[in-house]
Amino acid sequence: MPDTVTRAETEPSGLYRLAIPAQRGWITDVSHELVHRSDPRDIFPTAWCRLSDTEFSVSAQWPRPHRFFAVASGRHQDPLLIAETMRQATMMLAHAELGVPVDDQFVMWDLAYDTVVPGFALEVASGKVLIHLTCSDVRKRGKSIAGMRVDLRFHRGGTVLATSSGRISCTSARAYRRLRQDRLDTVGRPVPLLPGADPYEVGRTAESDVVLTPTPQPNRWRLRLDTTHPTLFRRPNDHVPGILLLEAARQAAVAVTPGHTFLPTSVEIAFHKYAELDSPCWVEAELMPSDDSSRTIVRVRGQQDGEPVFTSELAHTDEDDRS
């Protein structure tokens, strides 16, 4: 069995340091089926090894430039890479190590992450990243699993970059067809592309990456869907992908903060139901009070047909304002 990853003392700076023993038994066959991504440019895990029945090490490669996961300033790594890498690593291990068939469907019910290194700068949070992933609350279904919780710790050179956690469920292909039978005929159906918000106001540089459409009401938008987007819609889908909803929350948070420089250094988001492609989804954001002058908190909600789709809270910590 490979040696386990051990946690060392906390440094005076507040950053965690990890003692990483030599690993054995790395598997490098990360196919696009395992991570549910078709384009190699959007695949971030590169290898994995099992540490125990519930613990794994995963190697990932975080790009400096990426066609979508990028911060407009060009100085910071995109924290949404944490969420997307968690999603890919979790599905990869579920398929490869926990018996989940590749045609099963995953639902991420909640997700949270928190950056640890100040500023999450590109020079620190890019290149090879190691991840310690722990599974808990595993619910079995035959030789497969029905769901579990995952906790991840991302580190590079022994320094922890970020932590994340989430809760997923797995649905068999047959059960998913029964659940979504009235929606599967929407796959591949054209969705009108609405006008986008000003890219600068939502923290993007390209209009093609904007996922919000302005409305007459302040701090309220309609979700904008471009089903040809190469990253957000990696394949024809019968519902709005979760990563697009997370991006909508980020863009709304950027839009309501002064200067539009909001960097989501920590996020908590809960997904309540599928967001459908053929009905308007409304996104609302509000600034929340904060006792810390260096910390900006925004609450963002999504609603469709009068029901909540997601609720989220995003925070930005301005390192320059810290005493």
CATH class of the largest domain: Alpha Beta
The percent of residues in helical segments reads 10-25%
Domain tally: 2
Topology order in helix (H) and strand (E) letters: EEHEEHEEEEHEEHEEEE
Assigned CATH superfamily of the largest domain: Hotdog Thioesterase
Largest sheet report = 12 strands, antiparallel
Uncertain runs:
1-23
Shape: globular
Q: Based on helices, strands and strand pairing, what is the structural class?
A: mainly beta
Say what the CATH topology of the largest domain is: Thiol Ester Dehydrase, Chain A
Strands in their spatial order, largest beta sheet? 3-4-6-7-8-5-11-14-13-12-10-9
| Separation of the first and last Cα atoms | 46 Å
Q: What's the Cα radius of gyration? A: 19 Å
Structural notes for this entry:
There is one protein chain. The chain has 323 residues and is mainly beta. It has four helices and 14 strands. The strands form two sheets. The protein has a twelve-stranded antiparallel beta sheet. It has a two-stranded antiparallel ribbon with strand order 1-2. The longest helix has 18 residues. It starts with 5 loop residues before the first strand and ends in a 6-residue tail after the last strand.
